[in-house]
Amino acid sequence: MPERFDSYDRVAIVTGSDSGIGEAIAVALAGAGFDVGVTFRSDRDGAEQTAEKVRAAGRRCAVRQLDLSRLPEAATVIDDLADELGGLGVLVNCAGTGIATPVVDTGWDEWRQVLAVDLDGPFLCSQRAARRMIAARRGGRIINITSVHEHAPRVGSGAYCAAKGGLGLLTKVMAQEVAAAGITVNAVAPGEIATPMTGNEDVDPFTVDRPGVPVGRPGDANEVAAVVALLASPAAAYVTGASWVVDGGMLLMGPQAGSHLRTGEWRNG
Q1: Number of domains in the chain
Q2: pLDDT in tens, 138-176
Q3: 47-71: per-residue pLDDT in tens?
Q4: HSE-CB of 258 using CA atoms within 13 angstroms
């Protein structure tokens, strides 16, 4: 008979949780009863502010610097945080980067930087997390924050799209490989979310008009975090290898958006 795996550690690590979507995820998981490991690359103050919110929810929090351009050594932070917090039940790979450069103009160093942070880093962090979860024999959750560009291209974002597309398929392969150990692996693919990364910091998304998106606005980071919290819960035990798009219907508009464009400005990215 298949085993039940619903007693995994109520400890979550959220990479890149010093601001934006990662911060919202860390706070949401704290609200769902998880102690949280927070990581940052350069914004220590932002990470400490996230930690304060986690602790205000009554949960423990530990903070570490994680620079995914310094691999493979940087991934040891996953084990450091798990050791400090006393286990690991959920890993959310949220740290990411991107460039707006046409493929023909993308330098090798730029390409490698994006691939390292957006694909190599999640691979190494997930590998470490999965090994711990398998050894503990209590199951777990790995959730990769990809992008709508896991599924659809964007001019000027070749490196980013390649990394996110690769992470989407890595998600599916890992889901197959670790399912018998009670570990689910899923992706969450945001569209435009009002965060510093999209130039919409501290903006109420309901005040921003996006006529090309069916919902008509950007998303809020908390709307992404809510989906992550669901996937992190024991209730989502039968969901694995999926990519949950959180984009207000953006991807549904492909053919219609194409047929309704009035200029060739899209070619400029």
Answers
A1: 1
A2: 999 999 999 999 999 999 999 999 999 999 999 999 999
A3: 999 999 999 999 999 999 999 999 9
A4: 5
Task: Give the residue numbers annotated as catalytic, written as ranges.
Answer: 160
Statement: residue 198 has pLDDT above 60: no
In this prediction, residue 208 carries a pLDDT of 86
Residue 129's CATH number: 3.40.50.720
Condensed to tens digits (0 to 9), the pLDDT of residues 89-102 reads 999 999 999 999 99
DSSP sequence for the chain: -PPP-----SEEEETT-SSHHHHHHHHHHHHTT-EEEEEESS-HHHHHHHHHHHHHTT--EEEEE--TTSTTGGGHHHHHHHHHHT--SEEEE-------B-GGG--HHHHHHHHIIIIIHHHHHHHHHHHHHHHHTS-EEEEEE--GGGTS--TTBHHHHHHHHHHHHHHHHHHHHHGGGTEEEEEEEE-SBSSGGGT-TT--GGGS--TTSTT-S-B-HHHHHHHHHHHHSGGGTT--S-EEEESTTGGGGHHHHHHH--SSGGGG-
Give whole-number Cα distances, 222 to 152, 156, 199, 212, 246, in Å.
23, 28, 17, 22, 11
Confirm whether 2 is domain-assigned: no
5 part of a folded domain: no
Please report whether residue 6 resides in a domain: no
Domain span at residue 185 reads 11-268
Q: In what order do the strands lie in the sheet with 61-65?
A: 61-65, 35-40, 11-14, 90-93, 140-145, 183-190, 243-246
- The reported pTM is 0.94
In a domain, 207, yes or no: yes
